[in-house]
Write a sequence for this structure.
């Protein structure tokens, strides 16, 4: 069932505040959260599973700042493709929940310039 079909039958609940959840999981203030897709995939996945357990039907990938302009600020601009398409990311965070009942949406932010 796609998002439009779901919304026609009931209120669809999504996740939110990924950055806050990453900080609660140990991400230091000022550190890039998308880097955790590679360095702490189990923690990112645990956050997505917690959203699912709380009733979220939409799980956003941890990719809001995964663009070259944002990642350049952290010296990570050359790793943007790796952060978005690395094998452990494709098999981890939000994507592993897809067979259950969730809709997976990628997010990205404007560069903030």
């Amino acid at each position: 069932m796609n998002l439009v079909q779901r919304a026609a039958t009931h209120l669809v609940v999504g996740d939110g505040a990924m950055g806050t959840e990453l900080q609660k999981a140990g991400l230091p203030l000022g550190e890039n959260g998308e880097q955790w897709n590679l360095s702490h995939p189990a923690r990112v996945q645990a956050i997505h599973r917690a959203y699912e357990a709380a009733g979220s039907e939409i799980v956003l990938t941890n990719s809001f700042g995964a663009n070259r302009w944002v990642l350049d600020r952290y010296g990570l601009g050359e790793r943007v493709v790796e952060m978005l398409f690395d094998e452990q990311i494709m098999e981890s965070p939000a994507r592993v929940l897809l067979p259950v009942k969730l809709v997976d949406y990628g997010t990205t932010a404007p560069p903030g310039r």
